Amino acid sequence: MTWAGMGLSGVELFEEIRRDARRGDAGVRELARRHGVHRRTVWARTFTDPRLRAAIIDRLTFARSATAH
Predict the structure, then answer these.
(1) pTM for this one?
(2) Rounded to an integer, what distance in angstroms lies between the CA atom of residue 18 and that of residue 65?
(3) Which residue among 2, 37, 38, 63 is the one 20 to 30 A from 16 at the CA level?
(4) How far apart are CA 25 and CA 10, in angstroms?
(5) What's the pLDDT score for residue 43?
């Protein structure tokens, strides 16, 4: 079975999502659009990797502190 008509299995798709998230050049919405999945899917797949979880939390914390000033 393929995911989102892209010819990828779920495992392959989720690995691509994690790989793109590690690069850090796009947010959750952009990753969801790129891969044709819901934002919740991207969020769940990136938060299963502890390294990505820490990176995302750091980015969110930095973004919030930058907008607060």
Answers:
(1) 0.60
(2) 25
(3) 63
(4) 22
(5) 83
